[in-house]
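Aim 2 progress update. The chain analyzed this quarter is reproduced below.
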Amino acid sequence: MLLESVMAANVAFSVIKKAVQNGKDIAECGKAIGSYLSHKEKVEDEVNKTSGTSNDLEAFYELEKLNNAEKQLEFLMKKTRLHMWQDFQAFKNKRSVQRANAAKAAIKAKAKKDSEWAETISQIQTALFIVVSLLGIGLLSLYMIFNFER
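Predicted structure tokens:
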């Protein structure tokens, strides 16, 4: 998973770098920036895991390469347009907030779905209790009718 994320981040970085070198605005690379950020975040998550395996050094090294690539991007953006790097940082922060909000919304949706299931199960249990109770009362009534008529 680490290798795929690194490769995808490198491809996205290449697209961003080429677009900036050609003088395009940061808004025109939105898809590539989003891909770069999400894959870099995956690499950061992998590095932050405390797995204790031999892949830790590799993960750290790959993250360092991505950080160096981002420094190159910073240089290119500052060279291309005034405040382009600040715009990029603002975009990154906005995207981070959007992802966090999306994750919170997903958790809320799952909790709502779970509570709906719990409510449905509770209603089924109540209905089953009522049916069993009525069946018991009916059988008791039949028993009393047939046994006390003699």
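The chain has a mean pLDDT of 84. The longest helix spans residues 84-148. These observations will guide the mutagenesis experiments scheduled for the next reporting period.
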